[in-house]
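Supplementary Data S3. Sequence and structure tokens for construct A.
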Amino acid sequence: MLRSIHVKNLALIDEEEILLEDGLNILTGETGAGKSIIIGSVSAALGTGSLKDLVREGAGDAMVELIFETESEQVQNLLEQMELPVMDGCVIITRSWRNGRSISRINGETVTVAKVREAAASLIDIHGQHEHQSLLYPKYHLELVDSFADRELEKRKESCRANYQEWKEAGRKLEEALTDEKDRARQIDFLSFEIREIDEADLREGEDEELEARYRRLSNARKILETAAQAEELTGSDNGALMQISKASGILSRISDLDEELRDMSTMLVQMEDLCSDFNRTVNSFLDSFRYDERELDEITERLDLINRLKTKYGKSISDILHYRDVREEKLAQLTDYDAFVEKLRKRVRESEAKLRADCARMTELRRASAKELARRIRESLEELNFLDVRFEITFDTLDTMTENGADAVCFGISTNPGMSVRPLQNVASGGELSRIMLGIKSVMARKDAIETLIFDEIDTGISGRTAQKVSEKMAQLSSDRQVIAITHLAQIASMADHHYLIEKRVSEGETRTHVRKLDDAEIVEELARILGGAKITDTVRKNAEEMKRLAEVQKERRGE
């Protein structure tokens, strides 16, 4: 459940916090009071809307924070998978803006907008003013059928995607092979040349590193010998370090028995003398054994030049070159035994196509079963929304070619009047009808998924009278087992509220600001009267509002029985 919406410095809002409850939460207010800001803020926090466009002019920073309470294991598992803190059933989603940059956080951890969307998909579903227009696109119809289906379809879709990629890749390679047939002889000659050039080089892993080390040694031979000889002279000559340390050790040893610290210093000098002597022997041995052969340097230089030329052509390292050679040899074998290679590719295409076709066929079966039950439930839901003689069908067509999502084209068809044939939804439904149809679909899908919070932004577009009453009853019914938040202009819907909030503009010190507050019983009646009566609220309008609220309470009590 969405427990809190905290908004700061967005549009006409300085800072507001809306504390929401279980059941049906209704938000009303005059046109232009700022109702769209609330929904826009929630959308921005969830990563589906722009926060920057809402920031109040002149504000240095802005923020919207949503606090959810949930017992959903799916949400908890998702947070763990994302390596985000799990806070005992609490999920806090924050999006803040400062200095032209926005940052999203979940439970205090900075995350990408994509992660926010992923988490939000399991927490809340927002139906905006224009979302019902998605019903005009058959692609959305297929998504609904798939969402309603069971887990087997999702597994089959995963298999279908994998087999589709295999089928396309096999087809691409076959087409490439058939195209290459024309210049097969030229390719064979070129591949043979590349392989021979690499083989003749007789490369060995790590050889280049060894050669480079030897090259550095030999190309700096003079500098190495001069420096080592200088070090030997400074340590081993008559006036060198070894002789001086030896003298100091002899002098200090004469008095070392007089004091413990003197004994320690004498021991240190003895150790230094031994170390210096070892170094002197080592440097002498190095100078005696060091050999410089100009011919060897030339051979190493020539070998490194060859390896570097091959690297330029075939890879950045010897390992890359050898791998390139193996790949080219495999290609050469394919071209040499071309007929067998092409037949192998054709077999791969046939096998992957057969698997893909089986996936598509099974997906069609599962979708048809899902669509049959979905159509029945949507039809029942529409009847509850005052579509009295409605017929609702989901029809299937087969695509010209298989895709990674199967081979089905799905279309929702409807007839809302007796004697009228069922026609595609996008051809017959008006704006108000689309809004009701979407509500009916949401009602069905809400029982299928585990989302605990639904938001409806002006679901009442284009409806009135008895239809509005039916819509209000449907929303009250929906809120019996989940939280529903709705912005409305209709008194019939507002009267069904379990909790009613007023969004209003106030002018203070020459500035207009939007505020949100929860209404008590008396204020609810006044707000219903405002919606019913417009600018002038008479006693009759107020009594109508009281009666409407009373009847709504009776209706809700019957719902709970």
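Construct B, processed identically:
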Amino acid sequence: MYQIFVVEDELLIRQSIRNVINGMTGPYTFCGEASDGEMALSIMQDMMPDIVLTDIRMPFLDGFELIRHAKAMMPWLKIIIISGYDDFSFAQKAISLGVDQYLLKPIRPPELTRAIEEMARRIEAEKRQNTIPHGYDTDEVQHALRQHFMQQLLYGGLHTSTLLERAHALKLDIVSPFYQLALFSFSTEGMDYQHLQITVQNLLERLGMPLYCFNEANQLTVLCDGRDREALSEKVYRFNTILRHELRELCPTITTVAGHVEQRLSAVCQSYRTAADLLRKVCGISPGQVVDVSDAAQIAAEMLELGDPFGEAFRKKLQQASSADVPALVDEVLDSPEGSRFSSTLMRYYALIDLLRMTVQQAVKASPGVDAKDVATRLSSEHDVMTASGSLSAFRQAAIELLQHAVSLREDNVSAMKYSHVISKAEKYVAENFCDPNISLISVARYVGLSAAHFSTVFSQTVGRSFINYLTAMRIEKAKELLRTTGMKLSTIAMEIGYNEPNYFSHVFRKLEGITPKEYRNRSQGGDQ
């Protein structure tokens, strides 16, 4: 299915294009629209379209700027410009930005249909190319040597000067202020590994990322570098988005771990060990996640519904325990017949998460109204359950410290937590500004001080839905209230909740509620208006 997004400030033209797309036969779907470039960019980050039709002259962010930003985030996009300007300089700039077709207004439906079908053919042709090995920059030997060099870098043992000499011989520029690893694990059921590796290899070559290797048939490690720490993290998040989009049909479940940002090549091997350990645990517990090693607390906050390896009896004893009682309680469990289960690293990790949950429950009981995820985030920042699960002795010590913390929390108030203030700030800002038609993921991310890609990931994993879905739901809830309690026109309600176009408001409302705004009003008010 090819998802098509339309960006045009003229309502009638948007309607006409939408009608053409909806009337096409075949695997085409109209996935959304926007009246300006900034709003379009925000929505497209969530929709991930395949084909974009855009005007050039638009408010806030013109078509050329939209294309430049969109291509950086979603390089697979096929772009069709629809313009009323028959200007050679415009066409020249469009070519430089990688635009696929340039159509002049007024556009006849057959012409538009042909253009979209041509984009679909190009997408399919590129997919077919991914199944055939390309020639490498030099040859297969050079490619194998680069893979071997990457493995030497990850597993350590070589002096930095030796690494630099070998990189120079392989024509690799690896001298950079900052380095960050991205590890990916691909779901294994029914996987065609050869096809997967060829597809990934071609993608990495297109993106100019030469340093990578498949540590296992289903595990990829990529080394990214950059001159700015924040820009590098943004690059890793963006690459994750691109990889998931390109492999969405081939491999629907991809688990991602972003390693620590390092400043020395010699530190990359330790960063890899930490990230690989985390990847194994996340794949065993919650596959498909996107996790940052520096933010392992987020994992714990999402693991509150795990099983209960310590049992209900232990929980009851804990409720009456003092700090001095805790070591004996833990040893009682470890020395019991059931204690043999903790010989497994994964089970130790489960158990520490379960202890974290017990501690959270104690904190919530002591301070009604606090957010359980916030508490879990703080505690897991203070108690590194990932590292502690590595050995039985470290596990015992972590369990004792965590439970003693649980006892002390009976008297304590829970302070501000990592990310909770960011999400709370964002939610408050959206609640106060959702009626503004110019609000977007980019503007909210800028307000809370995060990059758009990082904010999008943090927001969706914390709130449980994407930012655009969250904003849309808030707007539609307000629209339902106005439909029930007022006689305002639909066009006025659309403007009140941040939509400049009544037809688009009706389209979104029907998509979410299953009925039109007018039908909703009639049902809620018990008759025709």
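Residues 187 and 253 are 5 Å apart (CA to CA). Residues 131-138, 297-307, 411-418 have pLDDT under 50 and may be disordered.
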